[in-house]
Design goal:
Number of domains: 1
Order of helices and strands: EEEEEEEHEHEHEEHE
Radius of gyration: 16 Å
Mean pLDDT: 90
Strand content: 35-45%
Structural class: alpha+beta
Length: 176
């Protein structure tokens, strides 16, 4: 499974980080997404069912940042909890890939041993959030005005656009 990544960073006053990795499985897209900005944080696993099909898509996501926990459907919207739609093999691979992605690209405000990351951000006057791009990786982002972006070769920008459009923010879901 070849993964693709997309990361955007806006280092303005408030700052924001939008990062995801995904892989394709037939017509589906499976991955992990994290977004942080002033006053908001979200991290979850997802599956966009039938993303490359000629019919309606469904956006499934984990309710918490736990691949083995409860999931819900963000598009079309529902308020019910569901079982994870992925196979055990996909779950293990997704968890492994998420761990590698985070280790390679991100650091968190409560991580141990991040003094050098914090110092580098401070020197450049960049805001530090709960989730941040590793200092050694920031140079890989293409700076286009207020938005800095990195996408691995072959990344489908439509995946990020779909998530931005349909990802429900902090809505209550219930057991069905």
């Amino acid at each position: 499974m070849q993964s693709r990544i997309y990361i955007s960073y806006s280092p303005d006053k408030a700052g924001s980080v939008f990062a995801l990795f995904y892989f394709e499985s037939g017509e589906d897209v499976i991955g992990w997404h994290i977004e942080t900005r002033e006053g908001y944080f979200s991290a979850a696993f997802f599956m966009i069912e039938d993303f490359y099909a000629d019919h309606d898509m469904r956006l499934y996501r984990s309710v918490e940042d736990d691949v083995y926990g409860a999931w819900t459907i963000d598009h079309p919207p529902t308020r019910n909890l569901i079982r994870c739609p992925l196979s055990e093999t996909q779950l293990h691979e997704l968890e492994r890939m998420q761990s590698m992605f985070v280790e390679d690209w991100l650091f968190f405000g409560d991580d141990a041993h991040i003094e050098s990351e914090l110092a580098a951000y401070r020197v450049q006057g960049l805001p530090v959030h709960w989730a941040n791009i590793r200092w050694r990786r920031l140079h890989r982002l293409h700076k286009d005005g207020a938005l800095w972006v990195h996408a691995s070769p072959g990344t489908d920008q439509n995946v990020a656009q779909f998530l931005r459009k349909y990802w429900r923010l902090n809505e209550k879901v219930t057991a069905s």
